[in-house]
Amino acid sequence: MSDAPTFAALTTAQCHALLASQQVGRLAFTFRDRVDIEPVHYVFRDDRIWGRTQFGTKVQILAHHPWVAFEVDQVEALFTWQSVVVHGRIEFPDPDGSAQEQARYAAGVAAFRSLVPEAFTPTDPTPDRDLVFMIPVHDLEGRSATTRYA
Questions:
Q1: Phi, then psi, of 103 in degrees rounded to 5
Q2: Consecutive H or E run containing 20
């Protein structure tokens, strides 16, 4: 009997299930000759990754270079894991913009409050993070590793 790992692609449904089961992912973005990656809290809802951040260098870069990768992992052991990578264009809905932008911002706030109910309220644990971001999930791929005895 072999306990060699088996690697496989995840189905779209498995990718969605993994995205929905986690709360922290990594956002990767580039600027000139540098790649950055930052951990962020998020919620997966309605084929979108919703998160929040605060205005700063990252947001300034993403405003001009919005193409990102977003990764989520669930690791149980060295050869027992699942990973999903989403490629897409990050968007920052404007709470003072058009009716459509306001609705998207409100949807992001509602999604994030499912994770942190106090978000965007006077008792918010991270009140400086007042920007909602959204990554529509169009391009995703997932991989997994398992062993026969996992």
A1: -65, -40
A2: helix 12-21
Residue 54 reports pLDDT greater than 60 = yes
Tell me how far apart the alpha carbons of residues 28 and 26 are, in angstroms, rounded to a whole number: 6
Q: pLDDT tens-digit profile of 71-83?
A: 999 999 899 999 9
What strands lie across the sheet with 24-31, from one edge to the other?
A: 6-9, 139-146, 80-89, 67-77, 24-31, 34-45, 48-53, 131-136
Q: Which residues contact 127 (CB under 8 A, 6 or more apart)?
A: none
Q: How far is CA 83 from CA 18, 36, 63, 117, 131, in A?
A: 8, 19, 27, 27, 27
